[in-house]
Design goal:
The chain has about 475 residues and is an alpha/beta fold. It has 3 domains: about 10-100, NAD(P)-binding Rossmann-like Domain (Rossmann fold, 3-Layer(aba) Sandwich), CATH 3.40.50; about 100-315, Mur-like, catalytic domain (UDP-N-acetylmuramoyl-L-alanine:D-glutamate ligase, 3-Layer(aba) Sandwich); about 325-460, Protein-Tyrosine Phosphatase, Chain A, CATH 3.90.190.20. The chain has helices spanning about 20-30, 45-50, 60-65, 85-90, 100-105, 120-135, 170, 190-195, 200-205, 225-235, 285-300, 305-315, 340-350, 370-375, 390-395, 405-420, 445-455, and strands at about 10-15, 35-40, 70, 95-100, 110-115, 140-145, 160-165, 180-185, 215-220, 240-245, 255-260, 260-265, 270-275, 325-330, 330-335, 355-360, 380-385, 400-405, 425-430, 460. The longest helix has 16 residues, at about 285-300.
Length: about 475
């Protein structure tokens, strides 16, 4: 089953982009009886969609010209750095340009919805909330930017909860969507080319709180300046129930972590609930922030603190997010392929000592800066992909560097050096600080390749 878009029955709708999200959108619209005209610039994607029974029509055809709505896949530019020609043409003829999340929000019925966004940690937070609800025996569906597309969800009744990860790209394409609990974990520079700069990026993230009513809840981080400004604006507005979160200090009336201990101050009487530092699947203070957000979201949904804490302790972790693949002959191998920006990589570097760091790919930033406190953790950096040379220049003098070009070469060199130096608890860490598209399909493909290299290694294996 898919989400029922019955309100689109017999309406003419164009769909642009036929990847995971677009294909799910076209299927759901077709199942509801809409007249779908779908397109993707990639021939292989068009063939796959046609094989799935989706009608293919180019943007210059009559089917597109009679459509009142264009459902756009989030990866396709519609404003910056320049709109896709089909989007520009659609707007010129007065078509509404929306995303699949907007359709989902209109169709989800009486089920509750928790939405999560942020520059870093949104996948972990989303997965952790889903895990908490599942462990509590609640009916839950999980997806969005992570996992299943929202229109591929199984319909839930009034006792169910959708937990949805939302990217800035998806939020820009929402118009009327509102979420019972909306969480914004953090904001740092990312995707600036797609949003016309930092102000556009912040505005896209801020949209998660649009259209909320007073009975709805906000979970918001206060550890960075953009989020603090948003938090202050929400407090002044006084409409929603606001739960601030922090990983490094007191968040009055909210949830916060100090020295690894999570405190619940939602009722105004702060009490320790959980030692997050003891949970191996949530390493580092950035995961303390994710845990605080997930705990706050679950509390806002009415779950008991003891139930939430017990579920967090059993969280298994996500692949490609500081995934400890193996320990072989005393060397740890950590797959953090999801670290596609510098801030995310720096968070991983703070979690380990004696790091043999593999970084690079298609850079989102021209330089890679490494604070001195983190450079002490790095024994050697092995650079790959398009960013190898510029990153080498920006890191020069901070750490020892090898420009390796490919992940295969970098992995071999990192493993060899870690073995030769025999330092205490060495870690070969893939945390690229870059997108993957120069050499891989996506960050999952990159992480799976790293994992395959680890699996092929001989040697004595220990519990990871």
């Amino acid at each position: 089953m898919v989400i029922d878009l019955v309100f689109m029955r017999e309406k003419d709708v164009a769909v642009l982009g036929l990847g995971r999200t677009g294909l799910a959108t076209a299927r759901a619209l077709a199942a509801a009886g809409a007249n779908v005209a779908a397109w993707d610039d990639r021939l292989a994607a068009r063939r796959a969609a046609k094989g799935a029974g989706i009608d293919i029509a180019a943007p210059n055809t009559a089917a597109w010209k009679r459509s009142a709505t264009l459902v756009l896949s989030p990866g396709i530019p519609h404003t910056y750095p320049r709109p896709h020609p089909a989007v520009a043409a659609a707007r010129d003829q007065g078509m509404a340009v929306i995303g699949d999340v907007e359709l989902f929000a209109r169709a989800k019925g009486n089920a509750s919805c928790i939405a999560v966004t942020g520059t870093n940690g949104k996948s972990t937070t989303t997965a952790l909330i889903g895990h908490i609800f599942a462990q509590a025996g609640r009916s839950v569906s999980l997806g969005g930017n992570l996992g299943r597309a929202v229109l591929d969800f199984d319909p839930l009744g009034p006792d169910g909860t959708y937990v949805v990860e939302l990217s800035s790209y998806q939020l820009e394409l929402t118009k009327t969507a509102s979420f019972d609990i909306a969480a914004l974990i953090n904001i740092s520079a990312d995707h600036l080319d797609r949003h016309g700069g930092m102000s556009g990026y912040v505005a896209a993230k801020r949209r998660i709180f649009d259209n909320q009513t007073p009975r709805m809840a906000v979970v918001i981080g206060i550890d960075d300046a953009p989020c603090r400004r948003i938090h202050l604006g929400l407090v002044r507005g006084g409409h929603q129930h606001i739960i601030p979160i922090s990983a490094c200090g007191v968040a009055a009336g909210g949830v916060y972590v100090i020295k690894g201990i999570l405190y619940d101050d939602i009722g105004g009487k702060a009490r320790p609930v959980l030692d997050v530092a003891e949970i191996s699947t949530l390493p580092g203070d950035h995961n303390w922030q994710n845990t605080a957000a997930a705990y706050a979201g679950a509390r806002a949904a009415g779950l008991r603190p003891s139930v939430i804490a017990r579920a967090i302790r059993s969280y298994p972790g996500l692949p490609h997010r500081q995934e400890r693949v193996a320990v072989i002959d005393g060397i740890g191998y950590v797959n953090d392929s999801k670290a596609t920006n510098a801030d995310s990589a720096r968070r991983a570097l703070a979690c380990y000592g004696n790091i043999y760091w593999i970084a690079g790919g298609r850079a989102k930033e021209a330089e890679l800066h490494l604070p001195r406190r983190l450079s002490r953790n790095v024994r050697h950096v092995f650079l790959i992909g398009e960013a190898a040379e510029p990153f080498s220049r920006s890191l020069n003098g901070r750490v020892a560097i090898s420009v390796c070009g490919t992940l295969k070469s970098a992995f071999a060199e990192a493993q060899r050096l870690a073995s030769a130096e025999a330092r205490p608890e060495p870690v070969v860490l893939l945390s690229p600080a870059c997108a993957s598209y120069d050499q891989f399909r996506d960050f999952e493909h990159r992480g799976e390749t790293f994992r395959a290299f680890v699996t092929a290694l001989p040697g004595r294996r220990e519990a990871a």
